[in-house]
Specification:
About 35% of the residues lie in helices and about 20% in strands. It has helices at about 5-30, 85-95, 115-120, 135-140, 170-180, 220-235, 255-265, 280-290, 325-340, and strands spanning about 35-40, 50, 70-75, 105-110, 130-135, 150-155, 160-165, 190-195, 200, 210-215, 245-250, 275-280, 305-310, 315-320. The termini are far apart.
């Protein structure tokens, strides 16, 4: 027979253990964040025309054109009394980064007019691009039901933070922390056509080490040299499914799938390991400038002599000069290190 005191001790220990488990579950339930919402940039709701308020109003764009970029979107309106303080807060964030952040910051005025915006003076000296969405439908498509409201979206289209009210100091700090975490040098989302007519996106290269370059098949000098050296890398890592090569044409109008296949045949390309990609020139420029940081929007390095090495976590590991034997040697060494 178990002594009475021992029974009480066991019961107390059981109750304490149960309380700890319940407490853990309750805390975890109330403090864990839900899975981030993922945007579909191809949906009609995200293709509502946006008029540039600090540019030519006739040249509309849409949120789809920002696909593959990390975005901070601030929704506001001239008739919103609480929006003025948020404009100043985001201007402060923009100025603190001085262009060093990879997060694109834009403002969208919804259910508004150009005349009312001009009269409000809210964006007279705005430090970031501002757009007008006259219907308010884009805000609704993104679940924005009150103003001001701010969404932080990563390059994969995931809404990682949503602030449904005016900023306070804590939220500004949290927002900057999240933005800092997103400025790591990672390849953004993309979807391009292979020479075989299939779609290749960034997830196809998850957990792979890969090297990218930008070429065009009619290039008489640099591009054949780049392609020859890519062929060397192909032969050194033949049949290693952990390693891939990606060549992206900057002349997609000329470089049709048929033209690319003929070019691949000339350089003895293994299509299972080495992809030749093409697509809309704007998408390619976005990938080149915002993804691989080669040049600026105004002056992208479309004819670059660089190899870009990407690691298994889709982070850019380094840039290597194709014309330098020493640099190419370092590239081969780093590939081997990453694969190990």
């Amino acid at each position: 027979m178990v002594p009475m005191n021992s029974q009480k001790t066991v019961l107390i220990n059981v109750l304490i253990f149960a309380a700890i488990i319940v407490g853990f579950l309750v805390v975890n339930f109330f403090t864990s964040e839900p899975a981030p919402k993922i945007l579909s940039f191809e949906s009609a709701g995200l293709q509502v025309p946006l008029k540039p308020l600090n540019g030519d109003l006739s040249k509309t764009t849409s949120l789809k054109d920002f696909r593959g970029q990390s975005l901070l979107i601030h929704f506001w309106a001239s008739w919103c009394e609480a929006c003025a303080s948020d404009q100043k807060a985001i201007d402060q964030i923009v100025n603190s980064y001085h262009g060093h952040s990879s997060v694109k910051i834009i403002g969208i005025a919804g259910s508004d007019t150009v005349k009312a915006i001009d009269q409000s003076g809210l964006i007279k000296n705005s430090a970031y691009p501002q757009f007008l969405e006259e219907t308010g439908n884009l805000a609704l498509a993104l679940g924005v039901k009150s103003l001001p409201q701010t969404l932080l979206i990563d390059a994969k289209g995931r809404v990682v933070m949503q602030i449904p009210r005016p900023f306070d100091a804590h939220q500004v700090d949290l927002l900057e922390t999240r933005m800092n975490a997103m400025t790591e040098n990672r390849v953004p989302a993309f979807a391009l056509e292979t020479s075989l007519g299939k779609t290749l996106n960034e997830t196809s290269l998850d957990n792979k080490v890969w090297v990218a370059d930008f070429i065009f098949t009619s290039c008489p000098d640099m591009c054949p040299m780049l392609t020859s050296k890519m062929h060397v890398l192909q032969e050194e890592h033949k049949n290693d499914d952990r390693f891939k090569l990606v060549s992206i044409t900057v002349d997609p109008d000329t470089d049709t799938p048929e033209v690319l296949r003929a070019y691949q045949k000339k350089f003895k390309v293994d299509s299972d390991q080495w992809y030749f990609l093409r697509g809309n020139i704007k998408a390619i420029e976005n990938l080149l400038v915002n993804g691989f940081k080669l040049g600026t929007v105004d002056q992208p390095e479309l004819h670059s002599g660089k190899f870009i090495l990407v690691d298994q976590s889709s982070k850019i590991s380094g840039y290597y000069d194709a014309e330098s034997s020493e640099s190419f040697g370092k590239l081969k060494t780093e590939i081997t290190k990453l694969l190990k």
